[in-house]
Design goal:
CATH architecture of the largest domain: 3-Layer(aba) Sandwich
Shape: globular
Structural class: alpha/beta
Distance between the termini: 54 Å
Number of helices: 13
CATH superfamily of the largest domain: NAD(P)-binding Rossmann-like Domain
Strand content: 15-25%
CATH class of the largest domain: Alpha Beta
CATH topology of the largest domain: Rossmann fold
Order of helices and strands: EHEHEHEHEEHEHHHHHHEHEEHE
Strand order of the largest sheet: 2-1-3-4-5-6-7
Length: 361
Amino acid sequence: MRTALVIGTGLIGTSAALALVGRGVRVHLADRDPEQARTAVALGAGTDEAPEGPVDLALVAAPPAHVAGVLADAMRRGVARGYLDVASVKGAPRRELEALGLDLSHYIGSHPMSGREKSGPLAASADLFEGRPWVLTPTRDTDTEVLNLALELVSHCRAVPVVMDADAHDRAVALVSHMPQLVSSTVAARLEHAEEAAVRLCGQGIRDVTRIAASEPQMWIDILSANPGPVADLLTDVAADLDETARALRALRSAEGAEREEGGARVRDVLRRGNAGRVRVPGKHGSAPRAYEVVAVLIDDQPGQLARIFADAGTAGVNIEDVRIEHATGRQAGLVQLMVEPRAVPVLTAALRERGWALRQ
């Protein structure tokens, strides 16, 4: 791949463009908002000059509702040898293109499973996709050259290619992305009018659950409008679970004897199934989650504190597998939770105490 045209210079399009430019590809940028394209140019994502002839690959990074129209226009103009989109739904755009009677042998649907709560080119990064799955949805009609171009793009972005059927992809992202977004937003919505005294008690649990609720609403309207059926089915199942759990909790409050025990068993079953589902979420390097031990360190909110902790752990020969920070309410301090292999806990604990860090149980 020597040349590419990125149509749509939001978070995903600009991030892909930055990655391609970093690998020596000449990238042309286009957007219905010229100011947004100029911002991407200023970030080093390419040029907003139109290509003189067909490019190797046209990457369409428009909202799902507009993907088919933008792709159809680009195909009719013959702007590239291959065409690819990065919309978060795959079945609907392809069916729209088929209905238009276009030759889809030079097109492949794709979806990089990466993003941020912020949108737009200023949130873009060349390493946004590094190590993340990038779904490709070829069909038996997909030209081999186009598939190879798509694989080259994924490689340039340092992502991990995953080949799926388009409709299977849409059902999968409804489960692991679209439904969780609405559940997170629903939980966060309960905080809008909550008493201030209650909100001040927010800890890491509520922060984890509501993190993605900070996402941009209009972006999610576009995504959900393109995949409503599978998401609605999942929400119906979740609502049934919640309704059953609510009845079980009321039994715990008001019933006695066998009925109370049954209520407790039903709540326990929900928690158990949650444990079983959580275990299936891939952990580090895509493997099943491993059981790490936590070494908790109290730090002040000052520059260089995290760097010092990591350096001290490195000096002790301990690899930090993961890290979380729980901020203290109303204080310039926080609790850093260092996840390490169980056998490394005594070594790290001794090293950090020797260097004056305050550890917490």
